[in-house]
Amino acid sequence: MQHAVGSPLPQPPQPGHGPAAGWSPAAHHPGPHHPGPHQGSAPVPPPPPGFTGAHRTPPVPPVPPAPHTPAPDTTGHLPLPPGGPVTAPSAPPTPAAPDPTTTTLAVLLIGPAGAGKTSVAKYWAEHRRVPTAHISLDDVREWVRSGFADPQSGWNDHSEAQYRLARRTCGFAARNFLANGISCILDDAVFPDRPVVGLGGWKRHVGPGLLPVVLLPGLEIVLERNAERSGNRRLTDEEVARIHGRMAGWYGSGLPIIDNSQLDVPQTAHLLNEVLTRSIASPPNW
After folding, report:
1. Are the beta carbons of 260 and 116 closer than 8 angstroms?
2. What is the chain's pLDDT, residue by residue, as a tens digit (286 residues)?
3. Distance between CA 110 and CA 256 in Å, rounded?
4. Fewer beta carbons within 10 angstroms: which end of the chain, N or C?
5. Could you tell me the domains of the chain?
6. Residues 6 or more apart from 179 whose CB is under 8 A from it?
7. How far apart are alpha carbons 1 and 12 in whole angstroms?
8. In what order do the strands lie in the sheet with 211-215?
9. What's the rounded Cα separation, in Å, for the pair 120 and 108?
10. CB under 8 Å to 253, separation ≥6 — which residues?
11. Judging by DSSP bridges, how do beta strands 106-110 and 132-136 pair with one another?
């Protein structure tokens, strides 16, 4: 027996009592009645899926699973690009002069023994407004303990190899700092008459964005400062004079030169910022 949607289901007859009291099939199903071969109520079919007795609830489509998103790398470290040096980020072109105290830079401070390279580089790095690392070639070279080749005992292939290894190590460290947004300043006694292992080597190790600056006080000042040194960093007066004479070749090279003979460390660092401002705006050709 069919029932229209929305009509209440009939009460099932009780055995031996006939139709339920007050219930007439004709009242709910107007029209002619054609009883089947067997008298009585037909079995009630089960309600269709979603039938609540008042309306049909449409089936709810299944919710697709959320796509799997891999966890982000939160280490904060950036991988170095393979096989090539990292170019030091430069300041965006603006009408105003770039501020070397807030720009990510890679600086190479060149000078003879006693020029004050290490002191100036350390002070400059400590007083910048952005993260900056000081990478000292002498410090890295002195990591070697057993078998350390001291140039005071004579320059040979062994000491040359250790200097070359230390420069490559410093260059890699500088690239790593720059790739993570940290400026760096390196100091080294680079000679102008050895461009392949000097500036050329640093350019290969760090990248073309490296800014070289020469720190070259007078010979008398260099001798006085060298006399205050101790250990294997103190050289003979003859060696200091020879190195200073070779460094004079930087005059006329196009690189910026700072004569800090009459300047203390903070004054030299301030002048270094001025020189770097000009170098950022117009990089030296080297």
Report:
1. yes
2. 444 444 454 555 555 554 444 444 444 444 454 454 444 555 555 655 555 555 555 555 666 665 555 555 444 455 554 444 455 445 454 556 667 778 899 999 999 988 999 999 999 999 999 999 999 998 999 899 898 887 777 778 888 889 889 999 999 999 999 999 999 999 998 888 876 557 888 988 898 889 999 999 999 998 988 888 877 677 888 888 888 999 999 998 889 999 999 999 999 999 999 999 999 888 777 6
3. 10
4. N
5. 107-281 (3.40.50.300)
6. 78, 79, 80, 81, 86
7. 12
8. 132-136, 183-188, 106-110, 211-215, 257-258
9. 12
10. 192, 286
11. unpaired
Q: Which two tokens stand for residue 43?
A: 């079995």
Query: Whole-angstrom Cα distance, residue 259 to residue 125?
Result: 20
Q: Are 43 and 36 in contact (CB under 8 A)?
A: no
Buried b (16+ CB within 10 A) or exposed e, 237-271: eebbbebbeebeebeebebbbbebeebeeeebbeb
**Among 42, 112, 110, CA closest to 272:** 110
Q: Which residues are CB-contacts of 184 (< 8 A; sequence separation ≥ 6)?
A: 105, 106, 107, 125, 132, 133, 134, 135, 173, 174, 177, 178
The stretches of the chain forming alpha helices (DSSP H) are 25-28, 117-126, 137-141, 157-179, 199-206, 219-227, 237-247, 265-281
Q: Are strands 183-188 and 106-110 parallel, antiparallel or unpaired?
A: parallel
pTM above 0.70, yes or no: no
